[in-house]
């Protein structure tokens, strides 16, 4: 029975957000964040966590102590973030933007990158391996692409019906039939996901391969703190042409690759400014800006204030 694991997981998030737990729901409204994390148990085959949060400050390296529920397959759904300058990411094989669904049979650490001041709406469905195997066995193409004893991670975007179902789950507020409605919507969302994965496998769709390559290229940019990595090098690492990398990166992440690099550099500069160990000129040089004046101009254009003003307003 997963109820004890559900309670343990909710306790973990309650500690992270300094929240209180009532009726399997963690609530909080403080300097860290405001919102709720709702847990719902349906059966031995299915339970969920529903995240509806607005983060007031950056949090990272979360999820390392989450309960190990290796008997379940994770279906993690995220709504598209309107503000494309901010990214919600998760530790899968690498950090990825969640703008759709991730299906994995491993416990993964939930992690955020640049999350402050953005809304976070996620649905984590836990499906028993027995029920997941039953669903996989209905599709010959999925049986061939998802091996029972092997680790797997599948990525896909949400089609309009899937997105509508996800939104509906967040809207359910019925004191009589609420849980039944949520269970039906959850099973429907799972089935829609399996159907889409099956079709992609049957059509030999390479979206998962492309996305994995894109996540690799994106991670290289993050690891290098947004430094000007030659686009030819990134394309080679991703195993595709420069033009295809540019096209797919913008398509999947909804931001041009050069703009993403700039964003990472500027976020890194904020951290360095607050640490106070380097001068503004040194930071500009380390992050690849041509001059300190160039750094100041780009910073102000992006954030609306200068590095000096940012440091003054955020340090004692």
TrEMBL record:
Per UniProt, what is one Pfam family of this protein? HTH_18
| Ranges where the HTH araC/xylS-type domain occurs | 215-313
Q: Does the keyword Repeat apply?
A: no
Enumerate the UniProt keywords alphabetically.
DNA-binding, Transcription, Transcription regulation
UniProt key word Transcription regulation? yes
**InterPro entries per record:** AraC_XylS_family_regulators, Homeodomain-like_sf, HTH_AraC, Tscrpt_reg_AraC-type_HTH
Highest taxon above the source species: Bacteria
Under SUPFAM superfamilies, the record lists:
Homeodomain-like
Gene3D superfamilies documented for this protein: Homeodomain-like
Q: Which PANTHER family match?
A: HTH-TYPE TRANSCRIPTIONAL ACTIVATOR RHAS-RELATED (PTHR46796)
What is the protein name stated in its UniProt record?
Helix-turn-helix transcriptional regulator
């Amino acid at each position: 029975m997963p109820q004890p694991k559900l309670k343990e997981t909710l306790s973990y998030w309650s500690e992270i957000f300094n929240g209180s737990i009532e009726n399997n729901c963690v609530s909080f409204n403080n300097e860290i964040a405001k919102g709720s994390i709702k847990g719902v148990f349906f059966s031995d085959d299915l339970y969920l966590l529903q995240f509806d949060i607005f983060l007031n400050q950056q949090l990272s390296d979360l999820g390392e102590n989450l309960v190990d529920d290796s008997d379940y397959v994770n279906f993690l759904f995220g709504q598209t973030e309107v503000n494309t300058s901010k990214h919600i990411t998760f530790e899968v094989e690498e950090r990825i933007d969640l703008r759709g669904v991730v299906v994995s049979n491993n416990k993964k650490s939930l992690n955020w990158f640049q999350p402050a001041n953005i809304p976070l709406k996620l649905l984590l469905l836990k499906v028993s391996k027995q029920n997941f195997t039953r669903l996989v066995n209905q599709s010959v193409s999925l049986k061939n692409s998802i091996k029972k004893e092997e680790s797997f991670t599948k990525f896909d975007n949400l089609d309009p019906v899937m997105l509508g179902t996800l939104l509906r789950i967040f809207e359910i507020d019925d004191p009589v039939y609420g849980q039944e409605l949520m269970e039906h919507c959850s099973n429907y969302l799972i089935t829609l996901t399996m159907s889409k994965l099956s079709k992609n496998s049957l059509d030999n769709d390479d979206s998962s391969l492309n996305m994995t390559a894109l996540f690799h290229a994106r991670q290289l940019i993050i690891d290098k703190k947004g430094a000007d990595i030659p686009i030819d090098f990134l394309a080679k690492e991703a195993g595709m042409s420069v033009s295809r990398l540019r096209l797919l990166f913008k398509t999947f992440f909804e931001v041009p690759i050069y703009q993403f690099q700039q964003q990472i550099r500027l976020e890194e500069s904020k951290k360095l400014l607050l640490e106070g160990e380097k001068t503004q000129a040194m930071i500009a040089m380390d992050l690849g800006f041509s001059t300190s004046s160039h750094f100041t101009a780009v910073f102000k254009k992006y954030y609306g204030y200068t590095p000096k003003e940012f440091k003054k307003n955020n340090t004692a």
